[in-house]
Amino acid sequence: MGTFFEFMIDHLMQFFQFTAFANLTMGHLIMIGIGMIFIYLAIAKGFEPMLLIPIGFGIMVGNVAFAPGYDIGVYETGSVLNYLYFGVLYGIYPPLIFLGIGAMTDFSALISNPKLIVIGAAAQLGIFGAYCIALAIGFAPTEAGAIAIIGGADGPTAIFLASKLAPDLMGAIAISSYSYMALVPVIQPPIMRLLTSKKERVIRMKPPRSVSKVEKIIFAIAGMLLTTFIVPSGIPLLGMLFFGNLLKESGVTKRLADTAKGPMIDIVTILIGLTVGASTQATTFLTLKSVGIFVIGAVAFSIATFGGVMFVKLLNLFLKEGNKINPLIGNAGVSAVPHSARVSQVVGLEYDRTNHLLMHALGPNVAGVIGSAVAAGILLSFLM
Q: Which of 49, 95, 157, 321 is most exposed by smallest CB count within 10 Å?
């Protein structure tokens, strides 16, 4: 009888060693808590649920503490999660997301008022400001370049650049980028109010002119050629962005455009969110570098918002009355589409309930998408 109990106890103890309870650390518990916070913010507060729920659940999945060697984790070659993570690690998912973004983007506001593109360019100040900060605090140039792109508020671009320049920092960069994208309505309004006067906040802009189908088709083709001739390294993102837009605007490939902006982008968003979340295993994620990346990300995002708003104020010095731009659309130069444009609308309506800025803000907003991809190409050109 004693031998039987010893046999059972030995086997139970052996079984226990393979459970998550035996391998659990405080770091795993912290990361699981962070995953739950992401899910809470998505469900209770409505912060980017399409992103935060897959990422939050992925964080919890990645921090179920398992014994190594059983091909379970995202970093274990041959595991299912590792195969799914392949699309993140080798930059496959971001161009597919850009294809979908292109298929759902209307560039009319930008085409009708081309000067708005410089606002999108000015907001990229956050990227290059973050690059300098990251270098100053000791990150290697390639790591600094990958971190800097957080300032563009574009998750897919951040993942694409990190896959090329700093794969070991992928988790921290991706989580930081998507976190700040979700917090656009929290971070940007105080900066916008601080930098503008009451008079500036109620500036009325002329309604955008009607843009023809031919103009939109020409823009998709010319935009691709111009941007990729300047930065060929941005072809994977810029080429797919304008290709998706051409599918939409041509009028003869509706099924392809609908697939790109619907089922395809949804599937890729699920995969990228889950696997990026799963890559934040406590043993590799909870480091001082990760903390530094989160701090730099917040600073970069603030600099980008500052750059966009202040550039509009500068531009207004050279514009006649009646043609001035409301500085509240300057924040939309970051490429969180359409969330930062909605922030412009919401803040503008606080000061004038009849002054709708959304259509105007979409101009610099889509310009920011192009700008962040061009900035990524520039960084790749210098750092690869």
A: 321
| Phi, psi (degrees; rounded to nearest 5) at 164 | -90, -35
The rounded distance, in Å, linking the Cα atoms of 280 and 164 is 18
Max CA separation in the chain (angstroms): 97
Euclidean distance between CA atoms 248 and 257, whole angstroms:
5
CA-to-CA dists, residue 336 to 147, 156, 321, 352, angstroms: 17, 11, 30, 24
Q: What tokens appear for 87 in the block?
A: 């699309």
- For residue 265 the two structure tokens come to 């982008």
User: Tens digit of pLDDT for each residue in 90-149?
Assistant: 999 999 999 999 999 999 999 999 988 889 888 888 898 899 999 999 999 999 999 998
- Give the span between the Cα atoms of 101 and 103, in whole angstroms: 5
Environment class of 88 (CB within 10 Å of its CB; exposed 0-12, middle 13-18, buried 19+): buried
Helices (H), 19-166: 20-23, 26-44, 49-62, 80-89, 93-104, 108-112, 117-122, 125-136, 141-148, 155-165
* Omega before 338 within 30 of 0, i.e. cis: yes
Per-residue pLDDT, 62:
92
For the chain, percent helix, then strand, then coil, each to nearest 5? 75, 0, 25
Question: pTM here?
Answer: 0.90
Closest CA to 349 of 226, 192, 137: 192
Amino acid identity at 166: A
Place 249 in a pLDDT band, splitting at 50, 70 and 90. Answer: very high
Yes or no: say if 364 and 332 are a contact pair by the CB < 8 Å rule: yes
Q: What gap in Å lies between CA 356 and CA 48, rounded to an integer?
A: 23
Per-residue tokens: 210 = 């009607």
Q: Give the Cα separation of 177 and 175 in Å (integer).
A: 6
Structural domain boundaries in the chain: 91-383
Rounded CA gap, 332 and 342, in Å? 8
**In this structure, are residues 54 and 265 in contact, taking their beta carbons and an 8 Å threshold?**
no
Q: In whole angstroms, give the CA distance from residue 165 to residue 144.
A: 9
CA dist., res. 364 & res. 119, Å (int): 6
Cβ count within 10 A of residue 258 = 15
In total, the chain counts a number of residues equal to 384
